[in-house]
Each structure stands twice: as structure tokens, then as C-alpha cells.
Amino acid sequence: MGYHVRYQKKFIDCLAFEDSTTILECGSGTGEIAQFTMEQYLSEDGPNVDFYLADISATLLNSVRENLSPPKRVTPHLIQATAGNLPFADNFFDRIYALSMLWYSPNPKQSILDMLRILKPGGLMCFDVMSVLNTTGIIGNLGNKLSVAMQGGQRVTYLLPSEIKRMLRRENVAFDVTGYMPILPTTLPGIGNHLNLYNALNWLPQTENALFIEFCNKIIYCVRKNG
């Protein structure tokens, strides 16, 4: 099992779907994560669930429409939208998640705040960011800026975890933060996984220590909206 698959499972485990009836995945892509989530957490008996998949790409949403196989109690809804401008009423969802998506958003902070807007009081939202202070972040950030400048490639945003903490502290929420894959490189531009010890050694270290979190490759925020 590759490190990215183990990481995805760790992320989804944070969401505790048991009694959720309205769920949103932002940046649904191919639908692979939604399918995994439905099979692992929503296949047993329970309340009916409206599961919304939002993505900017109509092509990907069409692919999801053709391939998604939801359990009986789950009704999927496919929505073409961006995470920073979600077409839902305030306080609508029990659970919201954005896995490996925000670094492709033109404005990650605005995307987080818009997801928080549509989260119900008492609801749970999970998202992740990539830190610019990690080895991968330093090299990846420089490589991406050169790629965008020279070839017009897709922009990838690396953040300071402390920035996200400060933003969340201004909102009416409680949150936990966990960092994964500290210091050592993961996937690097032009090199791939050749220096990725986490992949080679089947290793996925994590930390909740505030100092070390800053130097992790990926940081997961689990945010509970207060009533």
C-alpha cells in the first residue's frame, strides 16, 4: 500500500460519518475517494444520506456519474462548483471534506471559509494543506513557480500552518491539527518518489506537536463548528 493511500485512509477516518445525513466532498476528482468513503463508512444500515460531490471540471463529474456505485442508502448529487464559491445555503452540511485539493485552489483561505459557512453548527469539516517549511514544500514551491513562469503550468499553493491556525482562531470553531510526514521529502519535481522513504519503508509518521507540525509535508485540520 503506497504512502498516499495510507494517508488518504487516515484522513477519511477523521470524519466519523455514523449519523451524518448530508455530506460534501470538495474537489471530488475521479470519485475514487467518495467511492471508498461510501463503501467503508456508509454501506451498513443507517439513515439515508445525501452525498454531494463538487468539482470544477465537468469532464470529471461526467466520469463520476458513469462510474460511481453508491450503497442503497446514499443518494449522490454532482455539482460543478469551486470551493471558494459553493452554491449552498449557510449551515447545510453535517460533514465536509477537501482531501488533497486546497493547494490547487486560487485562494485556499477563502475556500476554507466558504466551506465553514455551509457547515452546520456541531458539524465536522476536515481539510489538508501542504507546508512550505517542509523539504518537499521548499523544493516543490520553487519548482512550481518556475514551471508557472516558464510554461504556464498549474499553480500549487504551499502554506504556513500557523497562518491557517490564526485564521481558524478568529472563527467560532474548535479544531485539532495533525501533521504527517515531517521534514523528509515525499514526491519531488523531476524526481518523483525516488527519495521518498515514507513510501519505500511503508512508513507514515504523524505528530500533534505544534512545533513539528510546521515542518510536516501535509497537515490535516479537523474543525468542529460551535453552536
How large is the count of helical segments? Answer: 8
Helix content: 25-40%
> Which CATH architecture is right?
3-Layer(aba) Sandwich
- Alpha-beta content class: alpha/beta
- Mean residue pLDDT: 90
The poorly predicted ranges are none
Nearest-angstrom radius of gyration?
17 Å
Oligomer: single chain
**CATH H-level name... which superfamily?**
Vaccinia Virus protein VP39
Please give the number of β-strands. Answer: 8
Series of H and E elements:
HEHEHEEHEHHEHEHE
Beta content comes to 25-35%
CATH T-level topology:
Rossmann fold
Query: Mind telling me the CATH class?
Result: Alpha Beta
Domain module count: 1
Strand order, main sheet: write it out.
Answer: 3-2-1-4-5-8-6-7
Q: What is the compact description of this entry?
A:
With 227 residues, this protein is an alpha/beta fold.
